[in-house]
Amino acid sequence: MTPVISFRNVSKEFPGAGGSPVRAVDSVDLDVANGEIVGVIGYSGAGKSTLVRLINGLEVPTSGEVVVEGRPLSGMAERDLRALRGRVGMIFQRFNLLSSRTAAGNVAYPLKVAGWPRERRAARVAELLEFVGISEKARQYPAQLSGGQQQRVGIARALATGPAILLADEATSALDPETTKDVLALLKKVNTELGTTVVVITHEMEVVSSLCDSVAVMEGGRVIEHGPVYDVFASPREPATKRFVQSVHGDRPSPETLARLRHSFPGRIVTVPIRDGGTAAGELAGRFAARGVRATIIYGGIGELSEKPFGSLTYELAGADADVDALLAELRSHTPVEEL
Amino acid sequence: MTPVISFRNVSKEFPGAGGSPVRAVDSVDLDVANGEIVGVIGYSGAGKSTLVRLINGLEVPTSGEVVVEGRPLSGMAERDLRALRGRVGMIFQRFNLLSSRTAAGNVAYPLKVAGWPRERRAARVAELLEFVGISEKARQYPAQLSGGQQQRVGIARALATGPAILLADEATSALDPETTKDVLALLKKVNTELGTTVVVITHEMEVVSSLCDSVAVMEGGRVIEHGPVYDVFASPREPATKRFVQSVHGDRPSPETLARLRHSFPGRIVTVPIRDGGTAAGELAGRFAARGVRATIIYGGIGELSEKPFGSLTYELAGADADVDALLAELRSHTPVEEL
Amino acid sequence: SPPPGASSSATAVKIGVADASEAYWQVFQRKAKERGIDVELVNFTDYNQPNPALSQNQLQLNQFQHLQYLANYNVRNHDTLVPVGATAVYPLPLYSRKHRSPADIPSGGQVVIPNDPTNQARALLTLQAAKLITLKGGGNTLSTPADVDTAASKVTVIPVDAAQTAANLPSVDGAVVNNNYATSANLSPQEVIFSDDPNSESSKPYINVFVARAADKDNPTYLDLVRVYHDPEVEAAAKQDLGPTTVFKNNDPAELQAVTKSLEATIQKAGT
Amino acid sequence: MNNWAQLYPQLVLSFQQTIYMVVWTLLIAGGLGLLIGVLLYATRPGGLLRSPVVFHLLNVLVNIVRPIPFIIFITAVGPLTLLVMGTTIGTQAVVFPMATMASFVIGRVVEQNLIAVDPGVIEAARAMGASKSRIILTVLIPEALGPLVLGYTFIFVAVVDMSAMAGYVGGGGLGNFAIAYGYQQFNWPVTLVTVVIIIVVVQAAQLLGNWLARKALHR
Amino acid sequence: MNNWAQLYPQLVLSFQQTIYMVVWTLLIAGGLGLLIGVLLYATRPGGLLRSPVVFHLLNVLVNIVRPIPFIIFITAVGPLTLLVMGTTIGTQAVVFPMATMASFVIGRVVEQNLIAVDPGVIEAARAMGASKSRIILTVLIPEALGPLVLGYTFIFVAVVDMSAMAGYVGGGGLGNFAIAYGYQQFNWPVTLVTVVIIIVVVQAAQLLGNWLARKALHR
Ligand SMILES: Nc1ncnc2c1ncn2[C@@H]1O[C@H](COP(=O)(O)OP(=O)(O)OP(=O)(O)O)[C@@H](O)[C@H]1O
Ligand SMILES: Nc1ncnc2c1ncn2[C@@H]1O[C@H](COP(=O)(O)OP(=O)(O)OP(=O)(O)O)[C@@H](O)[C@H]1O
Ligand SMILES: [Mg+2]
Ligand SMILES: [Mg+2]
Fold first, then answer.
1. Are residues A243 and A255 in the same domain?
2. How open is the CA angle C147-C150-C156, to the nearest 5 degrees?
3. What is the pTM of this model?
4. Architecture of domain D4-217
5. Are C86 and C249 in contact (CB under 8 A)?
6. What is the predicted ipTM?
7. Contact present, E199 and E178 (Cβ < 8 Å)
8. For residue range D103-142, what is the model confidence (pLDDT) as tens digits?
9. Cβ D1–C272 below 8 Å, yes or no?
10. Which atom of ligand 1 is nearest to the CA of B47?
């Protein structure tokens, strides 16, 4: 299947402070399949927002070609670009609400642009505000809304016309976990029911793990890793990716935590990754017992990643050193156990 | 010890859309001890930002009294209020950077206000920008910075004068996990080294669990729960609090996840909370084995909360029903085991 | 900044005028210089300004007004400025490009007149004399367009900027144009369809004068400057600028002062 | 010298003339000026309709027209006025040069106010596929409405002021009345009364403007 | 009729007079107008120095002064001019009424531009304990600098325009030169040349203003 969004060696430079330009996006090649939810992660300043803004032509690449729905953006007629944008919803990092319109007015705006008749518009706006849980704020102006409420208006606005592609730049950064969960469910629903392709920039690894099909990791303007979420997270290649993955479920303990753990658990401490198709956590307990080693889980966790179990558990192993060594050797033959 | 910040039956109303006022903060009584890091959590629109803005007088309460450093804000002379504000750093939810000044200029501004001499200022600015990792963006204007870079300028600016009280309104919302970790470490450092009292509004429970001493939960303008983080998280009283806690380490699986787990794990599934001083996870394995029940950890995790182990584990229990029942009965006598 | 008139020469005279742009003033200045008088011109485009400035000693003389204007000014502002010499009287003719005589102007026609206070009332009187308008109460030297009895008048009077009278001649039925503007605008004498007589007694209030403070009415330097004005070379230049119909006047200052007095009395009587 | 009874009808007429001139000028120049201002804003480098040619042409044109002394301007556009209005004198005719000049003045004021609009919201509208004209009409102008209302209130006064010069070409009006019947006649009571009437009109407009601006600000 | 050789010195003088008047007016009124504008902005309801009394007084005062026809205004403030400047006539004297009037005009322009500043940054400065005067000087004005520069450029033209009326009281200047030596003499070449000089001056100022505004915008 042809990708719905495709970056072909795209770079974007901004004029910098000291005369030397800032290369916000650097030689990116990236394909996004139709109906896919792709997460874009990376350090602050990695170029995520710039990358996404290239998709609907808010930024024009310095070099390279962005192809959306099979058509290159460069040289696209203004009309066509507008039509395309009408099919691309965008949630902005800084919300960018129209301060002169109420919450409802903001959500209605893209519907007006799309030429919806008045009655359908009103119903749709009410529905969307209900969805994001701010119906009672419909007639408030942005300046009278809390940060999260503003963000939800931005989300409702981006979803209003039922876009074919949704660009979400940190769409849940100002939301509490509950509301975040609801919004992610909403995005998922939009994705499955309408087949909307979603590009989400996020700093919350839970968003990636619970929502995305694939993930692109950016660093210094480059996409340094890209693939299905499970693959990238289960076996991160780049140091940056590794550090991001550490912050998801089942991380190994930080040095300080480890120090505290050692205080309470004098035995040997190992971390075992839990992966789908690898060693199930349950099996381990049996093996430990068989070897006469008492294993206590002291840290870590098992969660889901792309609907598959994913995580790591840190054990205290208490028993004769030889027994423990033998056990570890056995385990290492099929799982990358690490002794801390 | 007298609290450094104290709310005494404070309410704040805003004029609403339909004439009826919005009660953003409702009869709040709250004390913050000197040198404490208190987290404020709650749903979007709960009144968190408004509460915090009352502390440095950016909002004036409709009724009640805010007392900071032992002095009520109401009726405080402009001079004194200014002096107080000089000792209170604030990180804004919407950053509020001076668009006419560079990153360095923004950070230097509070130093100028505080009357620091030029040379010390330059050194301090460089140090702060280094701290938050945007030294190379010192001479860029806010519009040329990414969201996270802007937020870091805001953080550096709030910390510039070494404030006695720091108000952080979602200070890491635009930051990646790595940078978040660094910033939290910085806040912790400021707290321990300078004794700064910190009030953080956050939606990230990891921030609360890794940084805060106490936590206040807001809902509908009220502080519905308040106490040491471990106490509030380990035994949440209010439904809202419970839902927040669910999003931290060792949550029970969501219905969808549970459905998938049942598919892979046909046995009975139970969730056991792991608390400090309660049943250690390690012990469980032994008991299961002793009863002839094979237990497999299929979900959940153990993390740290206020430097103590905290979480829950979900097991699949495979064995004779009677054995399992007996086991559960035994466990229930001292741990709130829940069968899913 | 321009130096104030504190020139080192013993006799420096600051004269307020309203037409310093006319070339004849340069001849005047040169001739005055020959007699050891340094003339500094201060040009006002607003007629209200030169008299108070003279009163306040900011000027030594001014030359922009006729006796009628001066008298009115003195009465209204309780001032005592006096004429110290005459310059000229100009006819204030009605021009037209569309009609041969006032009688040809259709009723409902438009006639423009200068809106400056030194000419407006006179223009109205001229139009009344041409039987184009009727002024309430017969009119006087202080009439304004508000005094036009529109019901009894044949034409509509439109006061405009003095220079606009000439400029708008093509688009109106008639225009009362000041001499100097008619000259500058190169209006042809053939286009004059009616004119008052500058030599008549009724034109006396319209004699233009040099004005000084009452205390200076016999100041020899100032009287000398009046003579400079009537130097043939200056007069020739002035005629060039102000128009061939200019009639130079050299009335005795005492007579001018007497006329002023009587005009003042009339105004006083008519006044509010 | 006139007395009040004589002057009264003239004053009423002048009032009507001023209203006529100001209303028409504001209607015409309000629209044209908005257009010029929007173009000045949108065609500048980095703008929505960026076009160095249009921007510089317009910029120069505005700067050519604005500094011309009004009486000279009236005369210079006289032939055009004659063509458009059929006459160059009187209240109606003077609306032409007034509206022309005011358009350029308003253009600058509008430009200034638009430049302060947060580019983020323009971007949001672009991202929705809104056409440029729609963005201008439904985003740019509403977002700048608070300052724009104050800008137009400012212009109202400027136009009232400008209308005082209508007397140059027989346009009459209150300003001219104050000068011709008050000031030039040394009739200070008339001057004062007329000026007070002007001030009252302006003051009323300003109160309205301030109130509208506050409504438009939403903060 | 004059010829160029005769006119040239007068033209040069007029140019100097215009520069003199415009520069002094802008210097004085630039400061005073900024003050008035800041006060109008800050004393309004919800403002930094909210004070209904000061706001309404100032608002009314500005609206009283601005609509007065300039020639009447010059005369009305004549006694004050005499007191302050020692004379009421000439280039120097006219700077007094010009600067006074321009102060009020600038006040309104400044007010308009300040109102568009994001209240969030003002709040940030307040939260740092900055004094109100410091906020005004180091936050409010710099944040509005882009539009303010354009506002002052706008005013530059308005002042040049106003200086054409300096001729009322013997102030001379280019505008007056264009009127007296060009327009009133029906000498169109002189008018044209003079107006072109004015336009060139204004154009230069505008280019500078646009450039500065772009520098000040940082976006
Ligand atoms: N200026 C205002 N005018 C009217 N209502 C306001 C205003 N500011 C806040 N509110 C309302 O007060 C309530 C509390 O707002 P606040 O900003 O304190 O919420 P919050 O807890 O910080 O939310 P978030 O997490 O979304 O930032 C909200 O319902 C909001 O709509
Ligand atoms: N208009 C601009 N002018 C100059 N530099 C810019 C501009 N916009 C972005 N940059 C720079 O480009 C780089 C990438 O910015 P971008 O906003 O894409 O980052 P990001 O990955 O979205 O970061 P964040 O997570 O902090 O939002 C940053 O270093 C930023 O400073
Ligand atoms: Mg970004
Ligand atoms: Mg908030």
1. no
2. 100
3. 0.90
4. Orthogonal Bundle (1.10)
5. yes
6. 0.88
7. no
8. 999 999 999 899 989 999 999 999 999 999 999 999 999 9
9. yes
10. 18
